[in-house]
Structure formats: C-alpha cells, structure tokens
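tool_call predict_complex ligand=SN-glycerol-3-phosphate
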Amino acid sequence: MANQESNTHNDQEGPAGRSAATGRRALLGAAVLGAGGAVLGLSGTARATGGHGGGGLRSLPVPTIIGHRGASGYRPEHTFGAYDLALDMGADIVEAGDLVITRDGHLVCRHEPEIGGTTDVADHPEFADRKKTTTLDGTPVTGWFAEDFTLAELKTLRAVERVPANRPHNTLYDGRWEIPTFEEVLRWQDEQTRKRGKQVWIYPELKHPTYFRKQGLALEERVAKLLRKYRKDRFDAPVILQSFEPTSVQRMNKLVDTPLVVLLSGASSRPYDFVENGDPRTVADLVKPAGLREIASYAQGIGPTLDLVIPKDASGRLTQPTTLVADAHKVGLRLHPYTMRNENPFLPADFREGTDADAYGDVFGAYRTYFATGIDGVFTDQPDTGLLAREDFRKGAAS
Ligand code: G3P
Ligand code: CA
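tool_result ok
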C-alpha cells in the first residue's frame, strides 16, 4: 500500500527581565553540553528559574522521543485524543501542534492549510462552496482551507484519520474529536502538567508562514502573543518552536526566547521563504558547515529528514551516514530528525518485513541504526515503540 501521506512543505518583545540574547547564549551552551546521548539533569540556570519553565532543553532525556502530531499512529492526528495518548505512553514532548490559521485569526492545529484530508468537511453540505484550488508554496492544491473558515465554523467539524488505508484501526475514532486551537493546547499543557505531576513539553510548528503572511494572516506575532500570555516565551519554557522557513524562525527569535528549531526537508529542496526572497540556497547548502553556523546564530536545533542523516539508495536501502550529526553538534545544534513510523511503507527497505505493506517492519532495527548516528531525538507516530527502542539503545550502550 502506498504511503498516502501528503507533505505540503517543499519536497518535500523580548520577555520580561531577560534579554533575548542572554537567554539564547545560555541555551546554546546547554545544547553543546547536551549533544551526545546521556540523560541530562537540570542545569544550574534552569534550577535558578524555579518552577516557571520546563527546566530548559537540558532537562530532556536524550535521545528525546517526540510524539509526532500526538500518538498519530494510533489516533487521528492533531486531536486531544492523540495528544493525551502520547503523554500516557510517556512521550518526552508532544508535537502539539502543526499550526495553521482561521479567517478570523485563530491559530489551530492541522498539518496543512487544506483540511479535507483530516476532517469530515466534505460531509458538510453547508461548506461545499468553500472547496477551491489554490496555489500553496507554488503548487496547486484543491480542497478546503483553514483560512477560509472562522473558528466557530471549524469547530463544527470533526477530525478523521489521514491514512485510513495504512491505519484502518484508527478510523474507529473518526468523528470523535474537534480541531484543537493553539490556545487550548497551551491550557492543556498546563492542566496535564498539574495532573501528571510532571512537566509536559510541546513542540509546535509554524506551517507555511509565507503563505499565510501574504494573506494578511501572519503566524509569528500571534504565536508570540499567546506564548507571552501563558508565560512560555522564555528560554526555559517547556516549548520548542519549529518551522521549515528559516525566516520565520528568525522572526520568532526576535519575538520570544523560546527554543527554536529549523526544519530541513530534502537536500535539493528550497525553503519557500527562500524562493519568495530570491535566496538561491537549497537545504544542501544549509547543511554545510557555513549554513549550520548561520542557523546556530538564531536557533538551538535542526529537524532534518532522516534521509539527511542516512541517505537511501535507489532501492530505498540505507547507505552510509552523512557528517550532519557531527557537523551540527560542532556548532551546538541538536538534531531531532523526522519521522519514525512502524509500518513497512514508511521504513527503509532494509527494515521492511513480509509482504503485507501495512504490517509493522523491523522498526527496532531501524531505531538502532539511527540512534547509533548520535541524533538527539526523533519524531515518531508511535511514541511507545520509540521509548522501548531508546531503552534497548541505552542497554546496548551500557553493555
Ligand atoms: O515537525 C517535524 C516533522 O513534523 C516535519 O514534518 O511534515 O510532519 O510537519 P511534517
Ligand atoms: Ca510537523
């Protein structure tokens, strides 16, 4: 069964009492010390901040297991069902959420502006006339778009499984959950932290910032405003912000002190802000030492595709690791590659098992191989599997 995932990125006021530069420097130092694979305790700086933050990036276990869109291997993505399950499983961070925006300016959690693939909007005759074809980052896309709906309208929809052919069991939960807003996520994070007696971390991504800014719906200032409102704008906030557009990450660097990650798609791809700004560089340029040094001047990490860490050959089998892990660590950047999934179609060919394309492959073998490169964490749709793989990895390292 083909991977039905659609990827729409290419290829795929400073906080009170602290200057942005001071916070950044402290955190960058932490990143240098943290790279390398140990479980790290609270830094002196983080302890001194008291209970406000998440203890800083150094308090995260390494490799960090990040629940991609929640526990999206088991529940429709970007729902509180998927986010809660990721926490129940023990994920270190929950990617809550990928952020898009409504016509009336509310940030909501969907992987892309087009909502037809992950909601029941097609079953709502009152919204039939909203279906359209638009150009998203240079590519025509047909469907229903978040920015054409008010929040009240979006709240009448329910989430459905994105890849029902690969994950038929998840359709059991179709129609159960609403689209979460980012503000609801920030409240949920605090409620869950209190309830579980453990700091909950979130990893929101700003999706297609140039596309939305051009429509008068800029994401960055709205994200910063909400982070300030919920006191998550500091360097030790239990939040990591991410985007495929470096310009957007640089904007966030000026607005808040929250940790930042630059996502990197395929080597030949160009971030869409670069396309708009006439910057000729591709991801292949950004992963060179000079590109990584520049990223390290405003971000604490990178989120590369797994293929940038270990490329595949024409048959989909893994080749030799690149120098990306070492090069990124050299300039103090953490690496949180994406995305590990248990099902055969999403695994390197080396780790697929049997003939059922939707069955699980040797995902533990794949984790072993990727963890051995020295990555600092990984996004995964199945956090429970990732956590077991980390246990295996640590046992292996200790023996
Ligand atoms: O945010 C890390 C990973 O989620 C990037 O890929 O397309 O799933 O948002 P995507
Ligand atoms: Ca994402």
